[in-house]
Amino acid sequence: MKLVISILSLVFAIIVANGCNSHTPINNNETSALTKYSKVKIDLFFKAIKNGNYRSGLSELLSSNVDINLKDSTTVNLSNKFNLINELSGKFVSDRLLRKKEIGQDLGVYVYFVRYDKSFYRFTFTFYNNGREIKIFRISFDDNINSEVEESLRLYAN
Asked: Domains in the chain and their CATH numbers?
């Protein structure tokens, strides 16, 4: 009986030891290529806005993807709305990352809270890694965050 317990203990110890050795610790300091690329592009975008170059900031971000036609009606419409935000909302104040979601190294979505003097917006950046290169896939912005904040506050008012 002692022999069986000793053998089982030895087997258990080997399994635990192998499990510990085969486990690779996650290094939280590692940043993915997708995150690095996206952060650089988003930082350049916000820096251009802060410096008053919002038109070129959007244009440079979008033109970094050769598949986006800057003269397409959808892109022109996006640019016009973006220009309006910057012309009517006052001076750019700050940006803050609200949420980051990545699907492996393939897709990254970054949501920012962006403050201007007169209003605030939600900017959403989507980057895509096609296996050869990472590029901006979509940018959107809206002020629906206003109604979402109001709705969440109603939950606490009761």
From this structure: 33-157 (3.10.450.630)
